[in-house]
Specification:
Radius of gyration: 19 Å
Number of strands: 10
Bound molecules: iron/sulfur cluster
CATH superfamily: Aldolase class I
Distance between the termini: 48 Å
Oligomer: single chain
CATH class: Alpha Beta
Largest sheet: 7 strands, mixed
Length: about 300
């Protein structure tokens, strides 16, 4: 049975706006995440191995958001709301709960811009609201001459291969369904891009896979792309490093020594790898004319 909790606050002001996501505020309708990505940064003892077991609906979210946005709008504190930073706003449960949809209605009412990040095609249901927000929202003053759009929709991928996705994102909608949702988003004229966070070393960041991904995304007419490499934390049984290394041992045993070596002492891939990764991404973004920014160009 789904757990329900009462949140103290639902809209969180960020300390600093991220240069990619442009988040002034974050909003998480759910606590924990049933998509259960092995590499998820929210993993760890708080949610356990199966994050779905800890999934909770924030039952007072709509009322709280309305109160918080009323105050922010009164003070003209318009800013981009990222939905979501620590869960997915379109978990399977959202199909019946419709909580994210109600929150978007509140956001539209108060005319705040929004950046939706998801691994699900359920967002197609709410394209009407995203279109309306894109038309009616008010950007923060310092972004008004840098952005044309006010609703941004980013689909997140670590791979576009359904079989690989099933290993590393076992609860999420298949990558092929996300690609189809991008087609529908573009057909509706939504400003839409892709977050490749994280690409999986030697699995989805090979030259062949990268070319396939960039070709695919270019053909889908996305507007931006945010690539990043893998970060893993912790040695506890519930931590992302343990879970990813276990999956590598099972499905990619040839890669295990390399993963073990790289993540033995650090949570990130080595500096030389990250430098080469960054250079490669810049080249691909240039070659495929896919900017890695939301800003107008
Ligand atoms: S969809 Fe996002 S929040 Fe949910 S498990 Fe995956 S990475 Fe974590």
């Amino acid at each position: 049975m789904t757990q329900r909790i009462s949140a103290k606050s639902i809209l969180h002001k960020t300390k600093r706006r991220d240069s990619w996501f442009l988040d002034d505020y974050t909003l998480n309708p759910y606590s924990s995440c049933s998509f259960n990505c092995l590499y998820c940064y929210t993993r760890g003892s708080k949610y356990g191995i199966n994050m779905e077991e800890k999934l909770s609906v924030k039952e007072n979210a709509v009322e709280l958001l309305d109160k918080q946005l009323t105050l922010r709008a009164r003070k003209q504190q318009y800013g981009i709301i990222v939905l979501s930073s620590a869960t997915d706003p379109y978990l399977h449960i959202e199909a019946s709960e419709k909580l994210t949809r109600q929150l978007l209605e509140v956001i539209l009412h108060h005319r705040f811009p929004v950046h939706v990040l998801t691994k699900s095609d359920l967002v197609v249901r709410d394209f009407d609201l995203l279109k309306a927000i894109d038309k009616q929202a008010i950007l923060p003053v310092d972004l008004q001459d840098k952005l044309t759009h006010k609703a941004f929709l980013s689909f997140s991928f670590s791979t576009i291969d359904d079989a690989v996705g099933h290993i590393f994102e076992p609860g999420a909608t298949a990558p092929s369904a996300r690609l189809s949702a991008i087609t529908q988003a573009r057909a509706r004229g939504l400003h839409c891009g892709v977050s490749l966070m994280p690409l999986l070393p030697f699995i989805s960041d090979t030259t062949a896979q990268l070319d396939l991904m960039f070709q695919t995304f270019q053909a889908l007419d996305i507007s931006y792309i945010f690539p990043a490499t893998l970060t893993l934390h912790g040695n506890d049984i519930t931590d992302s490093k343990t879970l990813v290394l276990r999956a590598i041992a099972k499905h990619y045993p040839d890669l295990l020594p390399r993963y073990q070596h790289y993540f033995a002492v650090d949570s990130q891939m080595p500096a030389y790898y990250r430098k080469a990764f960054s250079k490669k991404m810049q080249e691909l973004c240039h070659e495929y004319q896919l900017p890695n920014t939301l800003f107008d160009r």
